[in-house]
Amino acid sequence: DAGVTQSPTHLIKTRGQQVTLRCSPKSGHDTVSWYQQALGQGPQFIFQYYEEEERQRGNFPDRFSGHQFPNYSSELNVNALLLGDSALYLCASSSIGGNTGELFFGEGSRLTVL
Amino acid sequence: AQSVTQLGSHVSVSEGALVLLRCNYSSSVPPYLFWYVQYPNQGLQLLLKYTTGATLVKGINGFEAEFKKSETSFHLTKPSAHMSDAAEYFCAVSDRGIQKLVFGTGTRLLVSP
Lengths: 114, 113
Description:
The complex is a heterodimer. By secondary structure, chain A is mainly beta. Chain A has no helices and 11 strands.
């Protein structure tokens, strides 16, 4: 049973560029959440997708956008990259019908903005 | 708004010693509480969770935590540290049914021989 998979694992961009990160949820899960983890910090909630709709959103600017596909996989897009966007981006999956609130995390995509 | 405070950004113990990582939370409703572990260059792995019922929760790798509502705490303990326990530990809280985690800033556990 494959867990949460993310790609790419590492990438380097320059300021002003755009980036797309991808996530496949754990088998049987229908909800995908994205978190940003800056160096030395705890993960911060970006947004959550369910039924191809953004269900919740954290305190992130509109430069951060996402998408969920019919197969439940998801993309995170960041436009007009800033140096401060350098971080580990974590994808987490869950089942909307689950009643424990537990999230399963991927290993992350480490973005470096130069 | 929910928040989590983890006291001590770094905790150092000797191998075989007691591990105690502190977590206090703020929530307006009874929350779900979690401890996750993160090894270098990896994602987060769930150690244990409290949702309802017994307030002493046992997790993987010999860790346990106790939910104390009166103290709004959910401290993580392990009787005897092992070198392999060296990692970053995150406490997190969520409202019931929301599936959105609010994390603390983490505690790095260092284990010396």
